Amino acid sequence: MAPYCVLAARLRHALNSGIRRYHVAPVLCQRAKVAMSHFEPNEHINYEKLEKNINIVRKRLDRPLTLSEKIVYGHLDDPAKQEIERGKTYLRLRPDRVAMQDATAQMAMLQFISSGLPKVAVPSTIHCDHLIEAQSGGEKDLRRAKDINQEVYNFLATAGAKYGVGFWKPGSGIIHQIILENYSYPGVMLIGTDSHTPNGGGLGGICIGVGGADAVDVMAGIPWELKCPKVIGVKLTGKLSGWSSPKDVILKVAGILTVKGGTGAIIEYHGPGVDSISCTGMATICNMGAEIGATTSVFPYNARMKKYLGKTGRADIAALADEFQQHLVPDSGCQYDQVIEINLSELKPHINGPFTPDLAHPVSEIGAVAEKEGWPVDIRVGLIGSCTNSSYEDMGRSAAVAKQALAHGLKCKSQFTITPGSEQIRATIERDGYAQVLRDVGGLVLANACGPCIGQWDRKDIKKGEKNTIVTSYNRNFTGRNDANPETHAFVTSPEIVTALSIAGTLKFNPETDYLTGADGKKFKLEAPDADELPKLEFDPGQDTYQYPPKDGSGQHVDVSPTSQRLQLLEPFDKWDGKDLEDMLILIKVKGKCTTDHISAAGPWLKFRGHLDNISNNLLIGAINIENGKANSVRNALTQEFGPVPDTARYYKKMGVKWAVIGDENYGEGSSREHAALEPRHLGGRVIITKSFARIHETNLKKQGLLPLTFADPADYNKIHPVDKLSIVGLADFAPGKPLKCIIKHPNGSQETIMLNHTFNESQIEWFQAGSALNRMKELQQKSS
Q1: Per the database record, which ranges form the Aconitase A/isopropylmalate dehydratase small subunit swivel domain (predicted)?
Q2: N or C: which end of the chain has fewer CB within 10 A?
Q3: Are 516 and 525 in contact (CB under 8 A)?
Q4: Catalytic residue among 96, 102, 141, 194
Q5: Is 650 a catalytic residue?
Q6: Strand partners, 741
């Protein structure tokens, strides 16, 4: 697109050449201001600043830039002076906006209230999607959730009104679908208090999952710190076809990189194959990048994004992005830290699991693998939807499979549920008949919410401990995540494969080659599904579920009852006393995988996300104790009795004894939930020592004044025993890049010393010394005033 000044000059020339003369306003020589969203008409996209910062950094680095570098460095607080080295330096950034889901927004807003600030500094939104339990169907479940969670919803609505935060009511949809439909755009930098925030990368944005304390920094107008990400390039060639889908791209990548292979890196997709993927398909791929530990994932701006922007009422943003397109794609010749190449023409449908999202199998092989491993092959429930796969295209492809089964007189052999991603998707698939087709094949349409994907599922068909298999189009399948049953074998795949497998009722069915038997006894084969990526008509917005914040919310009252069991105002954590941490007890030495689900379970515990003391009763109840191989059973070193982890931590706190946790690899992978950091801090923990950390959890621990440390020699994990005492010495000289010394005291009186590494920079050390990042913010506010 030609610049506006060129267009204006041509218009003047054309008009001046004619008989009549027209005035052309000088404003045409300025680029038009385009709003970030329909809901914030006075907040504009600032591509000019992005362009200016990119040019400063490119001149300094003197090399071509990747797309993710352009967007990240384009949001630097000080592009002229910021030290930039991938994987090493910490960047100070100015994100464009913040998004919070209701489970994490409670603690984020409680922390913002504690900051004493009158209003958020950047556009921010709250999305009610996590507290709706799947039970009997969308409408009934939504009514029940509004009744049960009235206190929390009222708190979030009034806090949003008081502090200038937009509020999406329960029933509006899943946060990431709402962001894609309304807030993400090419080149945006958005942070969200949910690990699947990278979903917005499907629209060319850098969208990063964080903890609530990080969100508070941005809402307070403080530069946000992020370790300069490495960049992993995924080159896509060929073209998707048949049963292969965008979900198979990320399932394949997860199998290659594993759950920690993307840690500290942005996954940047590029290559000619990109254009064969729809915008919502790109979002699916970016969404599940969280499962490989990536900081985020992103696609370059292209015609598929432009089409989606137009269909969601944002053609003006697409026009502006066209003008700045050179900054929304990677530079020619840019260098990646690692490159993976996938030929989409050769990519086969995949299914990953059980118990981990990186255990990848071609669908054609999963039946044989399951029989060999002793996994149940009969599928009890198939579930489609979630923030990963609930687009119009996803629902259309699933409906296309269902129609074929119905045409032959078949319905699903397995139970089957459908979760629309948003009220707009729900209303549109109802209008266009997809929802009815999915009901006809045996499906139950759930509320526009997270539901079973995060454990909000009142499952009745099995007993806890019963071995069974479910297949989902979700993103995570950790032990017990969906239904709190550790014996549920959960597999993740595309919605159309879930639908086909649910019709067949078994993992042994391969829709590419196998036949089904119709009601008439004749065999037939399912054809690969085909569906429109966007509706032919405009989207049906459905019910209006958005609450605008008032222009002046200063008079708004936010009520938190001191007797509430759901909400609790926060008390500041204690400051570091200036001494070494000596003779700490070991609360638990964790064996194997320990996700944030293990540290702070979701499901029924979600109702306590706004009450720190109550939710701390789930601390580490899912982690396996290496001493006895059991969950939620640890030795109390003071009484020598075994008991629940939270009870033991509370006893140590009551006795004034500090404690530590010892973890394995990739400790804290999974959800962004900062409760997994708040809880150990609240119950007296001071140090978490592991072989390695997941990015978000490590940052969350730092924010709450804890010390996340890693073994300089991973083999030293074996030197520490649950009955030992630990001392971290040298804290008076705590400095960036300087290892800390740990003295291990064994019960027999012997000692040994090991070295521990850390990733603290100077400002993060100040968080530790102040007791938390929030405490440090208050100290700086007091100094400035």
Answers
A1: 586-713
A2: C
A3: yes
A4: 194
A5: no
A6: 729, 755
